[in-house]
Amino acid sequence: MTLTLATQVALIAAGVIFLWALVLGVWKFAQIMRSPDGAAHIYVDIAHRAALMYSFATAMLGVFVQFSAWSTAVNLVALVVVVFFFVTAIASYCLHGALRDTENQLHPKSPMMTASMVALIVGEIGGTAVILLGFIVEQAGG
Fold this sequence. Notes:
The chain is an all-alpha fold. Helices cover 79% and strands 0% of the residues. The protein has four helices and no strands.
């Protein structure tokens, strides 16, 4: 069976995110080894764990788009939206870990942060719902 374009994109993205997670693990280890309390900055730790989880979530989405009732275009758009928000979340955690500028990126509150979080929620949940529904429709017999 040939993989659809959406599945290929999902699996490549999952692999790249997983590789990123492994590199983040090295960064986390280096910080742990240099730290007097034996801990990495909280956002380095969060970035590492988030990248690991998002890599497997992206691979799971790859399975759903492979066996979906929707067109390649619909699956690809939904997938790209979800992966975009996964990647930007990891990148923001990396930025805060590198800058060591906060231990809570959501405080102090700001309209920009609220808008970003609403977009992330809509993008991740909406895109995943579209992909999952296409899988369910196909598995239910089209």
